[in-house]
Design brief:
Layout lengths: L10 E7 L7 E5 L7 E7 L2 E11 L12 E2 L2 E6 L2 H13 L4 H8 L16 E5 L13 H12 L2 E2 H8 L3 H10 L3 E5 L17 H13 L6 E5 L5 H14 L3 E5 L7 H10 L5 E4 L5 H13 L4 E4 L11 E7 L16 H12 L3 E5 L4 H8 L4 E5 L11 E6 L5 E2 L2 E2 H12 L3 E6 L7 E4 L15 E4 L4 E4 L5 E3 L12 E4 L3 H11 L5 E4 L7 H12 L5 E4 L12 E7 L12 H13 L10 E6 L5 H7 L3 H15 L17 H10 L4
Parallel strand pairs: 2-5, 10-15, 10-16, 11-13, 11-14, 12-13, 14-15, 17-29, 20-27, 20-28, 26-27, 28-29
Antiparallel strand pairs: 1-2, 1-4, 3-4, 3-6, 7-8, 7-9, 18-19, 21-25, 22-23, 23-24
The chain binds adenosine-5'-diphosphate (ADP) and zinc ion (2 copies).
Amino acid sequence: MINENPSISTYLFNIILDLPLEQYFTYSSEVNLAIGQRVLVDFKNKKMVGFVWQRTVKEDISYSLSKIKPILYVFSEIIPQDVLGLIKFAAHYYHYPTGATFFTAIPSLLRKPEVIVINSIKYVSLINPEHSLFTKKLGKNQLALYKQLQNGTLTISAVKELLGASYLKLLDNWECLGIIKIFSDCHKLSNPIITNKLPLNQEQSNIVSQLSETFAIAKPALLYGITGSGKTEVYLELIEQVILDGKQVLVLVPEINLTPQLLDRFKKRFSNVQMHILTSNINDKARVSGYLEAGYGTRQIIIGTRMAVFTPFKNLGLIIVDEEHDSSFKQNESLRYNARNLAVFRANYHNIPILLGSATPSLETLYNYKLKKYSLYKLTSRAVSNATLPSIKLIDLNTTPASNGLTNIVIDSIRNRLENKELSLIYINRRGYAPVVSCYECGWVSHCTSCTGNMVYHNKDARLKCHHCGFTCKLPNACPKCESKHLQAIGYGTQKIEESLEQCFPEARILRIDRDTTSSKLAWDILYKKVHNNEVDILVGTQMLTKGHDFHNLTLVVGLNLDSGLYSHDFRSTEFLFTQLMQVSGRAGRGVKPGEVLLQTHYPHHELYQYLIKHDFSGFANFLLKERKILGLPPYTYYALFRASGKTLDNVMEFLNAAPKK
Ligand code: ADP
Ligand code: ZN
Ligand code: ZN
């Protein structure tokens, strides 16, 4: 197989392999290949997938040409130029090896040494759209289908959505009768049919028309709209314009926002449009199909979490980043990228508009607006008529004591909601039962034995778990230090608050939502449906509950254990806490019933709470920006973070002490 002596007519390529190295490997080929082409090569007697990164010539090879091995197989997939450019930029900007960046950015199936077959999309269209006699004999759904087909071609999946399980039989039948034809064409797009449009309010339509006018001379635009002000409607309207223009749209959303509710809105609006929904739990096949088809131009809308920023496009026309402030756009391991920032780079590269939406924009984005790099559009009132922002009240824990984590004011307010059959949400950003276990006799504390975190007590399985490093063990029967049996759980987590609520309101239907109860997507969907079917009276949960949800019956939000965010060593913690509280408050009173927010705190006079009760996000953001400027913190400066992990603390400390001086 190995060509000992490549002839003159052989092409040479530098191939990038899935190795953590800043290095390419040269291979030869009898045929010319595209940059980005997927190939199979032999590396140290192992078959590996690689991608053509550069062409090279034999003059540049410093070792014997006879050592160059031939490419074993050429796959059909090609990673296009724009994605390669993005990967190069990301590798450089985030200081990560190019090869490793590349392989992080592509779907995992492309890394396997296998041929990929994607099932191409099938379409249905009427053979004779004028033929109307036929409509008399049809059922309701069938008639609806026939009418839609008279407007244009549909995809099979749109037909399935409309008819349910019987769709195949019907299509078979109609095809036999010569009414329809079914075909697949990977380069054909159906004409979008837009349904379920809401008439925009004045603010929304002003923004849409301003944005569509300035799109040609795009600078990144910030859509700053309070919670429930109808930002999503603005996105949908702009997306419509872009896909009617025959172009593609990329929508980036935080993981937790990718709710059935949001997807439903997209599906209802763009029923026959090819979408690709990219979440962390879709299967590999679906992921690679959507990825490749976006590159061929046959998926018009890509909605996804941070990974989706690396999707190839044939004709990208618009990028939307919803909840641009959200921390889940940042990947905190291996390639530590921020998808929002890469999206801005990408929009600039394609010279297309990008819209960053948020009710609580990040300080970085606001700063870019102040520097006139971004433009700003505002939505200032709630879109549902009569819906207003909730009133926010502080409960001073210094004068109002809490028992089992809850003050009487909170308990009374929840009782009141129960009587009115309204939903309450209790927000506590700590999962588990209690943040730490301690010995009453000797003061022993449940520190993690593998890192410097504390072990959180989870009472459902009687275990201690470290939320930092993942280490877990059984709750000891007695104190490991003095053997006293007198161990106590200190502080509150979601489980303990759930227990307190169960004691106060034995008849209430309480649902806890945190990472422990929603580990699978299915679990999340089931919990979600329960809330929407009014099968829940009290929701208890972590920040998972703060984002994007639209629970119409929710009128009370309670915030517990908030103060730790006020005095943290992380300079972003106050920004984060404020954003969380604005967002969680924004869940209340989204329908016609007014909402109320109660926050228990030991520091009611802290600036953060004072701005919060006035819903004054801009005020607090300016306050923080001033503080950051004085202290020389981002976004006024760039920070580098040195991180180390090792088998012993000494090693790690030695490295960390030396590293910044190098
Ligand atoms: P946001 O994305 O800013 O949180 P949404 O777009 O989800 O806001 O809108 C909040 C609620 O208001 C939704 O229930 C939505 O259906 C409704 N809504 C948005 N725009 C309008 C409109 N123009 N007319 C009536 N209702 C609207
Ligand atoms: Zn002890
Ligand atoms: Zn740990």
